[in-house]
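Slide 14.
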Amino acid sequence: MINKNFAAGSLLAICCLLASPLVSSAEIIPVELSESVSQTVLGSSVIPYKEVTLSAQIPGVVRSVSGEVGDSFQQGAQLAQVDESQLMAKRNAILAQIQTAQSILQRSEAQYRREVVSPRSKDIGAMPGFGMPSMMDNFITRPMADALMNNYDSDVGRYTDLVTSASGVSQAKSALQQAQSELQGIDAALQNSKSIAPFEGIIMEKMVEVGDTVQPGQPLVRYGFVKFKRLQADVPSGLVSHLREDMVVPVKINGRTDSMAKVSQIYPVADPERHTVTVKFDLPVDVAASPGMYAQVYVPDAQGSTGSVVIPKSALLSGRSLPSVLVVENDTSSLRLVRLGAEHNGGMVEVLTGLKAGARIIDSPPSNATSGWMPEAQ
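Slide 15: predicted structure.
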């Protein structure tokens, strides 16, 4: 019995010893002003260096989708294809039209050459003439007919026959060209039935499966070049003036990886609703990041020359969805939300809004502390 009481007392003493430092470590400290350059932390996302969305160009049923999300392909590889059976049937019909048009063109050209070499107007069986030997008709009968018959002129008849034959050739050529143009349109549609990789990359998202019916413009695959990566952030218009292309700023990937990024592109226009400007930052090649990851970009603030407000990270209440501290005023504490900025050396963190230099806060408060909690007097 004595041993059990001794063990229970020892356990209680150990618990008290473990708990007492947590309570006694809480103290009231002043908010400091750091001389380092103030930085604003902006949320951003990791994006591929290049990204395209391949959409359906013709209606039909999806016949194939190459690979799964994350699979890599070389430039020119086929990523998806829409069934082209109807287009092939139209193509065969147009090929038949081309053959017919070529035959008509050959016949028209033969008739035109015959009219040039052997005019119908000089045919011995044609009027005027008496069916006499062709030499007599050509030298006697037809000249007399041209001179004596007011309603007949052999030269006009020859001209008309030539124009008619030439018109037949021109119409045959137009029909052939029209059929060939339709064939080119069908071939282009057949090419559009296939979605081809425009550059080396991976499939980032599949939006259809084999058997789905698609219409022109419907997205099929989202494809990106991920060998190089970027960050894209919406920077408030008041901070854009502190950025310039090729400028290097600190970033943090997924809350763990610290790195640097170079400003690669600043959009020339701002969003009229949110009053922000889209800025892209190039990441180093060896940084461990995947498209879609959350990242933080540290942008120089306009008030960086006057210093920045910093507090110990231990002063932040743990277990809260939003960063908050206990501010001491009139011998009591009140809970206050703060907006954090960049982290500094020595376990300090910058406070952008919510605190001013000289204010008093509670350092190392317990996680369950609320407004009104005060550390014990020492």
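Speaker note: The longest strand covers residues 219-236.
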